[in-house]
Amino acid sequence: MPKLEAFRTDALPAELPFSAALRAGDLVFTSGQIGNVPGEMRLVEGGLRAEAQQALEHLRAAVEAAGSSLDRVVKCTVFFADMKDFQPFNDVYREFFGNHLPARSGVEVKGLALGARVEIECIALADET
Prior knowledge:
The protein is 24% helix and 26% strand. It has 2 helices and 6 strands, in the order E-E-E-H-E-H-E-E. It has helices at 47-65, 86-97, and strands spanning 4-7, 21-24, 27-30, 73-80, 103-108, 118-125. The chain has a 6-stranded mixed beta sheet with strand order 1-2-3-6-4-5, with helices on one face. It is globular, with a radius of gyration of 14 Å.
């Protein structure tokens, strides 16, 4: 049975009862990341682009805390408050992932925490030690 290690980041307010990432053997699973102000229960200002950038920065911090990196992400799931944000989100997403294109799903949901427009989670390979 693989060892489980939980990791927190500055993105999460201390009172939230979950980890930013969990490493299970050679895999890293992140919690959904939204564009909140680090450590606070409020979104960054600036709309979708600003939220997406902040959410992806939180995602990067989560995978790195668990001993991985964005170039080792194998699968992302993106939750949209409105599918019309799909293409604008892709523009920001490409800035973070470049030519590394993990498998990805995108779904529209009824609502996200704090009224966020986008939330993203991923599965990554842990760096080899």
